[in-house]
């Protein structure tokens, strides 16, 4: 996950501080694997974008930040792959998902790979059919269904051509 996600998650789930630095239950500083410049720039962007604010000398996650966190957590939903490796690739999936939903687009690509789909172009994939019903329902729930199209192929796609 991104540094933004980690920061918002920590700010909303813990209030432990030691000498002004967020720490875990063992007193170990959070975000020690990131450079000071990276953290400073990310915090600056979080303030500017309205994800966090200072309230009573404490940094708090705003409702907009909580909405971002919820969307990120929801986008982590996993689906089981029921397709065999050698299943016929007879379904073409095409999608056009806007940059504002980049996380959802990456989630979709990851799942298509998991379902043994092969990429023809970045937004055109071929694989076995049918896609799981709960997967298609979830695509509708996260509001990317409008940019998602499937086409049943008359015969299996041949990658050797």
Task: Please provide a brief summary of the model.
This protein has 5 helices and 8 strands.
Set out the fold topology.
Blueprint: H1 3-13, E1 17-18, E2 21-22, H2 36-48, E3 52-55, E4 58-61, H3 63-74, E5 91-95, H4 102-114, E6 118-121, E7 124-127, H5 133-141, E8 148-152
Antiparallel strand pairs: 1-2, 3-4, 5-7, 5-8, 6-7
Helix pairs in contact: 1-3
Protein name: Transcriptional repressor PaaX-like central Cas2-like domain-containing protein
Pfam family, one: PaaX_M
Domain Transcriptional repressor PaaX-like central Cas2-like: 92-152
Please describe what this structure looks like.
By secondary structure, this protein is α+β, with helices and mostly antiparallel strands. The protein folds into 2 domains: 3-74, Arc Repressor Mutant, subunit A (Orthogonal Bundle); 91-152, Alpha-Beta Plaits. The protein has 5 helices and 8 strands; from the N terminus they run H-E-E-H-E-E-H-E-H-E-E-H-E. It has helices at residues 3-13, 36-48, 63-74, 102-114, 133-141; strands at 17-18, 21-22, 52-55, 58-61, 91-95, 118-121, 124-127, 148-152. The strands form 3 sheets. The chain has a 4-stranded antiparallel β-sheet, with no helix packed on it. Strands 1-2 form a two-stranded antiparallel sheet. Strands 3-4 form a two-stranded antiparallel sheet. The two termini are 37 Å apart. The mean pLDDT is 82.
């Amino acid at each position: 996950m991104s540094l933004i996600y980690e920061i918002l998650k920590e700010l909303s789930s813990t209030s432990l501080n030691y000498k002004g630095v967020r720490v875990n239950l063992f007193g170990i500083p959070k975000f020690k694997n990131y450079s000071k410049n990276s953290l400073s720039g990310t915090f600056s962007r979080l303030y500017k974008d309205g994800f966090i604010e200072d309230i009573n000398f404490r940094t708090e996650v705003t409702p907009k930040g909580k909405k971002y966190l919820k969307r990120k957590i929801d986008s982590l939903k996993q689906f089981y792959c029921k397709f065999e490796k050698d299943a016929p690739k007879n379904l073409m999936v095409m999608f056009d998902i806007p940059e504002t939903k980049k996380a959802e687009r990456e989630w979709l690509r990851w799942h298509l790979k998991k379902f043994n789909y092969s990429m023809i172009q970045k937004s055109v994939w071929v694989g076995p059919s049918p896609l799981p019903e709960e997967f298609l329902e979830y695509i509708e729930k996260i509001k990317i269904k409008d940019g998602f199209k499937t086409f049943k192929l008359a015969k299996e796609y041949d990658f050797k051509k």
